[in-house]
Write a structure and sequence with these properties.
Length: 358
């Protein structure tokens, strides 16, 4: 069992009285995670289900988003964030919990346009290592991203707190943001810049408040939605996942800080262990469907009907992600941006040219 812990709410007002403590019960696994060393162990993930049976069960996360399981749902609306812009006169608590770096969030933060209203609890990150910088948990058509951030909320319409909600089938809602390499990101630096103060397990520091929505992509209306689980033990199947289609970008230097700055051991440990590879591998999807809020583009539909079998140099058309060696579903995230009409005529022309050569 997970021991009961006491933690102080995420935010403290400068110059004011401390916010009352929030007592967390035995099920507060999101606050008192096993350390990374415990999770990895000699057998790694394979051993989780021995102690945590849900980890070997159904509705597990993360998953790979591939064409065969995606289904457009016109009823999915853009998420609405409330209270995400936190004043700089208030402070978040940033903690190294031995498994990740966690920033607690105030109960004034919430999301709407879900089946219930969900109140924020915390955010944390997952990443790889310098030799294999593919640390996202979710993947898209088999592609890993450099890292992933999770913003965890609980169903406050039905449950009084996160420890009550954590093992309920409708208890949690997590926003997931995929992270790739690009330009320097000043918003993420508001967290990364404090890593030196939480280098070792159980260390914590205060981070001035900022607009947490800055950590999200611009397109809040494009996302993958499915029912899944916590990605760490006890792996309760209690999460309504919203994984944004559009990744955000951080610089190579920022990723290096994420991969090298933290340890899952305490300061006085004679054998310090770097905090790396704190992501769970993709799980089987149990013949479920993932709802998507976006149409995948005309190119996706064409892929069912059009294929070009051989002999075509397709490298000159960067937006396309189509196999020219065998019939396949054509899918590319960029075809809509490149222009559906241009894409269609290119495929038709390619098909005619191939037929002529035959």
């Amino acid at each position: 069992s997970v021991p009961a812990v006491t933690f102080f709410w995420a935010i403290r007002t400068l110059g004011g009285s401390p916010v009352p403590a929030v007592r967390a019960g035995p099920r507060d696994v999101l606050i008192n995670l096993p350390s990374l060393l415990t999770l990895l162990g000699p057998d790694g993930e394979r051993a989780w289900s021995k102690k945590y049976p849900f980890c070997g069960g159904v509705f597990q996360s993360p998953i790979d988003f591939h064409n065969e399981i995606l289904q457009y749902d016109s009823t999915l609306a853009p998420l609405e964030m409330g209270g995400y812009n936190v004043s700089s006169t208030e402070q978040f608590i940033l903690t190294n919990n031995g498994h990740s770096v966690r920033m607690n969030l105030p109960p004034t933060m919430h999301i709407r346009n879900l089946p219930s209203q969900y109140t924020a609890a915390q955010l944390h990150l997952h990443w790889g290592n310098t030799n294999n910088p593919e640390g996202s948990e979710h993947t898209v058509s088999g592609r890993h991203f450099a890292a992933e951030v999770h913003i965890v909320h609980y169903n406050s319409d039905k449950y009084p707190d996160i420890m009550t909600a954590v093992d309920k089938s409708d208890g949690l809602a997590v926003l997931a943001v995929l992270i790739e390499i690009g330009p320097f990101n000043p918003s993420y630096e508001k967290i990364f810049g404090h890593f030196q103060d939480v280098k070792f397990r159980d260390q914590e520091t205060l981070v001035p408040g900022f607009d947490v929505q800055e950590l999200l992509p611009d397109r809040l209306d494009e996302y993958f939605r499915y029912e899944g689980s916590l990605t760490t033990p006890p792996c309760y199947p209690s999460v309504l996942w919203t994984v944004f289609r559009e990744p955000i970008q951080i610089s190579q230097e920022q990723l290096l800080v994420l991969e090298t700055a933290l340890y899952c051991t305490q300061p006085n440990d004679p054998a310090p262990v770097e905090m790396v590879n704190n992501f769970r591998r993709v799980q089987e999807f149990d013949e479920r469907l993932v709802s998507v809020s976006f149409r995948q583009g005309l190119c996706h539909c064409i892929g069912y009907f059009v294929h070009v079998r051989f002999g075509l140099d397709h490298s000159t058309y960067p937006p396309m992600a189509v196999s020219f060696s065998s019939p396949t579903i054509a899918y590319t995230d960029n075809c809509m941006k490149a222009g559906d009409t241009e894409f269609v005529f290119y495929l038709i022309k390619a098909k005619i040219q191939t037929d002529t050569r035959e």
